[in-house]
Protein 1
Amino acid sequence: MMLGVRKYQLAILPAFLWLLSLAGCTSVGSIGLMVKTGANPIDRARSGSFQDLGYVEASGCRYLIIGIIPLGNSDPGYVLDQALDQKGADALLNVSTSNSHYGFVPIYNVFSINCTTLRGTAIKFEAAKVQ
């Protein structure tokens, strides 16, 4: 016996080190209003009325291989456009955001994933009425 260490205790060490190598974190926040990229939110909001199109959710992920090869898109503007396109909306109200980052073997940055998710109520601004 090796200084009182049993065989099953030695088997746990590689499993623990493997779990430790899968580091990740998630952050969550909320935003009142997100408007389609390229739109002028002040002009859109001046109409004062909008149509509620219902709940939408969209996600985008970016994969980074060996720390230098990016694949995918997790930009919040890109994810917002995906969510708005689902219902032909102009903006999202009561937006909930989450961003997750997972690194596999983070010391060497072999592979990592960064995902952005947006959830909210899709709205379409109505044209201002001329008086």
Protein 2
Amino acid sequence: MLHMTQHRIDAIQNRIQIIKQKLTEVGVMRPGSLTMQTRSTADKAFEYWQLSYTHKMKSRTDYVRKDLVKQTQAQVNEFKKFKKLMDEWTDLAIEQAKLIVKIG
């Protein structure tokens, strides 16, 4: 049992090292969700892009010019990649801490 636990701890440490390396490769990022909105007035309707996100417990909305939509979406995708890596690292760190306590 002790051997299997130590083997799992080693595997976790290896995966954490890989995650750390991948984090250094994350590019420019922005949190949020990029969506196209439509606003109608009495005589016409128009579309615009909006980036909505929450940061430091404050909800925010930024308007995005049409020529920056691709770039902004790429930044949102980078943030999602970052969050996924950080969530995995956190899960592994919790498991690792529990295993270390277990083997004393």
Protein 3
Amino acid sequence: MFLNEIRRTFGLRLHMIHAKNIHKHFGQVRAVRGVSFEVSQGEVLGILGPNGAGKTTTIRMITGSIPPTHGSVSIDGLDTINDTVRARARLGYLPEGAPFYPEMRVTEYLDYRAKLFGLSRAKRRSRLSYAVDRCALSEMARRRIGTLSKGYRQRVGLAAALIHDPPILILDEPTSGLDPAQIAETRSLIRDLSGDHTMLLVSHILPEVEKTCDRVLIFARGQIRADGPPATLVRDMLGGNRVIVEMKDTRSDGKPSRTIFDALPGLENATHVDAGDGFIASRLVFMQADAPDIREAVARAASEAGVLVRELRYELATLEELYIRLTSDPIDKPENSKPAEGGDS
């Protein structure tokens, strides 16, 4: 805490969440294995991974719901086990499928949640007004929660997470079950809130994470496989310029068209498929991710060989491709590395 006070005094960026070499075992099952990461003040961190990867178990350790078997977690400098009450007060948590009291009206429920955090009457009134306005719930404020649509219930859950003005928000699948318009609205709200809160976002929707998060962690089999800004991870881990060229299957000299690329500098690999009507589609991968536009060299090689080109375009590497590669590749697979009974998403 003393170091945090020094950082605040001098305006230094704080580590609001610090997980240090955390493990979680359920009997012989190792659900989380040596996970370490930090989340800085104001950062939006996304957590990705397939079911059973250790994401939910990690979140439960961060929120203090369960203790780590080994390692430690601190929230704004407060240990989640030794100082659990104060640490939890620093968090606003929206779990997936958040439970509600359907018979309560929206404002009644939010006031009830504020009371649980010990807010005074004046503070409750102020925070309730803020949360209702920020989450666009004014028109539904007097409605019973059980009558609300899925989208509005999600807004109520987010308002409840905000009600005590926590510095950290943890959102587990916040757009689950929403329609495209509601997803866009929620995404915009999350970005707006990031100016006032450090945020940890768990989602299976990769485009949502790419557009919302400053940084992502990709989990697989209880470990972190990648950590960094989405665009940087894709560039550094997949690398290479990719070009798709669709062209006639033979050159003017009768040789196979695919051979014209063999001499291109930096070509890492090429795959060719039949595109019909006497054309082939070649996918060319070049080693340098930051090389000049390689399409000019491809077009020149095709022209010099007398090949008719029907299409020439870049193919962008995606976070989805990286996610599939990292979560499919085998890492050390000890026995009993499967999730505990009931699974872990």
